[in-house]
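Open question from group meeting: does this chain pack into something compact, or does most of it stay loose? Before anyone orders reagents, we agreed to write out a predicted structure and look at it together. Recording both the input and the output here so the notebook holds the full record.
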Amino acid sequence: MSDDGFETTLTTAFVDHGADEETTTTAAERVAAFRDDHDEDLTADAFLDVLADADAYDSFEHRFDLAVGELAAANEDCTDSRAYRLAGFDGLTADPEQGA
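Structure tokens returned:
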């Protein structure tokens, strides 16, 4: 976890949003990776605000993925947010013959 408490703050808040312990850890790591890769100024509170606005779904996992997608869409350097989403990449993504 990062020294600034970013991941700790997120894991604690994710429990309040209905995530289990394993999911909170994975989700916090993914947001931290997004921050490292694309938005070094992202705060835990800013992510939690986006998560709170992602109310189109009931499950934490879907709301989290929507929030990550919203952050990625607002960041011109992030063209593929799947690495940061809990759903990740689907089975067809790695198939080089897909679409051929």
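Observations to bring back to the group:
The first helix runs from residue 6 to 16.
The chain has a mean pLDDT of 87.
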